[in-house]
Amino acid sequence: MGRTEFDPFRKGVLIFDGGMGTEIYRNHIFTNRCFDELNLSMPQLIRRIYQSYINAGADVITTNTFGANRAGLEKYALADKMAEINRSGAVLARSVADQPDSRTRRSAALVAGSVGPIPGGGNEYAPSEAAEILAEQVSALREGGVDFVLFETIHTPEQAAAALGAIRRGGGDIPYMLSFVPPERDEDLAEKLRILFAVLEAAPRPPFAAGLNCGRDPAEMLPAVEAAMKIAEFPLVVQPNAGYPKPFEGRQLYYCSPEYIATYAMEYLNLGVAGIGGCCGTTAEHIAEIAKMVRPLAKSQSAQTVSYGEPAVPERNESPLAGRTKLAEKLVRGEWIRTVELIPPCGYDLNETMTKVRHLAGFGVDAVNIPDGPRASSRISNLAVAERILNDVGLEPILHFCCRDRNLIGMQSELLACALYRIRNILFITGDPPKLGNYPSATGVFDTDAIGLCELQTRLNRGIDLGGGAIDPPTDAVIGVGLDPTALNRAREIDRFRRKVDSGAHFAITQPVFDPDALLRFLDEIGELPIPIIAGVWPLTSYRNAVFMGNEVPGVVIPDEVMRRMEKASAGSKEDQTKVGVDIAREAIERIRTRVRGVQVSAPFGRIEISMEVMTE
């Protein structure tokens, strides 16, 4: 099918709003009332809800007209007010959306005209009558000034056909999109979604997007998004429900906090979706968290590897890799590598950190990994910590270097400082969005991504700076990169990995792996490894820790057997649980040992004795 000229995604990912009915109910309007009619009787309330979503960061607000078709209004004796209710819902939204943003001076949001399915699935109506009922609503929304029509919560091909019939009859040239409810079960998910999306082939003109909404909580929506991305020929918009309570230690806990849905929104973004919002149960607070989390990440993903200045001097030959650091020498020789990740403190007292590093050096680790503001936390410069470790203890650091907090000029300056301090093992990462950290109002720079950083460091290693001038002597950095074997979009992750290698990477360290078989499958997909891989390992310290990782951290795969072992251990002491976690980590290392070049073991909560126990032969 052809593509529509209406392209609201041209400037990036759009944030859609959340549940309208949820917000109305929160304002003490009960379900025995017609929520759509509130456009007429309580316009200030509806306007306030629209405004709350814009204030939260939504790029698209959806009219309060989901059930405002003639058939849906009949049970309230309001069918004769169908056109008035829809026009009013659109006009109210338009009046809010057209207020210029105080920061950008542009219109605050687009207006989507919400059209839900006919009650009861519309089965009592002939296809032509069902299309006519929806066409009446579409015409009224057009008159009210919506930017596009959103047919949402479509369960069946027949409902989708009715929506397309409405566009033929009353849509004119207005842009539109259809959003489907994913099947309840994952069995044959791809085939069931294919049947729904296939209806779009009969569209009178192409929609500008397709969507998934309702029916699933954020975690359950993930496989549906993954399947839909392989099927949809249009940009995909995803709007999950807020979720359901889950049992834990005799309690019913709601894991779908605003932060929780926002972390899953990042997973949807990594799969390549074009728009993200919420459906039933989501509120302005959920959308605010999604906006804060997604926007910086979207910016980092859209950051292009920069076009550096043409060299004004000849490139120098890079020095032999094995001679740059002890770590590089072991990489070249193919020897087993053991490193420990140690997070810098929030203050500037390094006495405790240095004591731990001396213990690690005495234990015989090859290097200590120093993260760069992990999870966007505000901590002492990891370069300062790395310099102290190298000079006071003599243990080589692996400096993590992310592009979140510096522009290109600042990044080059700090890389030259690394060369001055002889900090040569550098792991380049894009970095977590600022929203994850302890100062969420900070902005992310993201002038480039990890691929661009590899290119910049490679130029410095060849004696060429950012603008094409000479660096004499050249730097001697050993370039490391991150690798996520649990990435949902594995094709994208593998493609980025290969681009990092092409840009000069010498080794890679994976995200923590709880399922060794998942890592092995990922390595099989890569095929022949172009650079050495060091596996990340996180020893679980308790069943509660395992529950948190499995439920709160998207993309983490903890096998059922591991969860059962940790749950069984929870009957004992904390030490008993930690011992089981150590055993699991050691078993994982043995499982992957022949396929990777070494391990990076995290020190959970700074407890280096746990990481050393994991690595003890």
User: How big a fraction of the residues is strand?
Assistant: 5-15%
DSSP, total strands: 18
- How far is the first residue's CA from the last residue's CA? 60 Å
The value of Rg in angstroms is: 27 Å
Q: How would a textbook summarize the main sheet?
A: 8 strands, parallel
Mean pLDDT reading: 89
Which spans have pLDDT < 50 for at least 5 consecutive residues?
Answer: 102-106
Percent helix, as a range, is: 40-55%
- Sheet with most strands: strand arrangement: 1-10-7-6-5-4-3-2
Secondary structure class reads alpha/beta
How many helices? The count is: 22
Task: Quickly list its features.
617 residues; alpha/beta; 8-stranded parallel beta sheet; 8-stranded parallel barrel
Can you walk me through this structure?
The protein has 617 residues and is of the alpha/beta class. Helices cover 42% and strands 14% of the residues. The protein has 22 helices and 18 strands. Strand 16, helix 18 and strand 17 form a beta-alpha-beta unit. The chain is elongated, with a radius of gyration of 27 Å. Residues 102-106 have low confidence and may be disordered.
Short description:
This protein is of the alpha/beta class and 617 residues long. The chain has 22 helices and 18 strands.
